[in-house]
Design a protein that fits this description.
With 101 residues, this protein is mainly alpha-helical. Helices cover 84% and strands 0% of the residues.
Length: 101
C-alpha cells in the first residue's frame, strides 16, 4: 500500500498549479476528474478497497495542502478533518461511489 500511496502523492505533486486550479475551481470538474481516475484504476484492476485507499490518499493530500475553492470542497474538508481514520475511510468509499454515478 505504501507504494500506491507514494505513486499517488508523486502524481499529485506533478500537477501544475494551473491544472490544479482548473480541476478544483468547479466541483463538477473535480468530480469528473476523480471519476476519470477511478475508471482508470478499475481498468488497471484495482478493487473497491484499493480505490478507496487511493481516494484516502488524495483526500488527505487535498485537506492538508489545498484550500477549498467552493462550498462543496469546504464541506468535504470539514467532514474529513472531523472524522477519525475509520470515518475517513468510509468517506473515501463514498467519494468513489459518488464519482461512479
Amino acid at each position: 500500500m505504501d507504494n500506491i500511496q507514494n505513486k499517488v502523492q508523486n502524481e499529485m505533486e506533478k500537477v501544475s498549479p494551473e491544472k490544479k486550479e482548473q480541476i478544483l475551481q468547479n466541483f463538477e470538474t473535480f468530480k469528473s476528474y476523480l471519476g476519470d481516475k477511478v475508471a482508470l484504476g478499475e481498468k488497471m484492476g484495482l478493487g473497491e478497497e484499493q480505490l478507496a485507499k487511493t481516494a484516502e490518499v488524495v483526500a488527505g493530500y487535498l485537506a492538508k495542502k489545498e484550500e477549498p475553492r467552493n462550498s462543496e470542497e469546504n464541506l468535504l474538508q470539514q467532514l474529513w478533518e472531523s472524522g477519525d481514520k475509520e470515518q475517513q475511510h468510509a468517506l473515501a468509499h463514498m467519494l468513489v461511489n459518488m464519482v461512479r454515478k
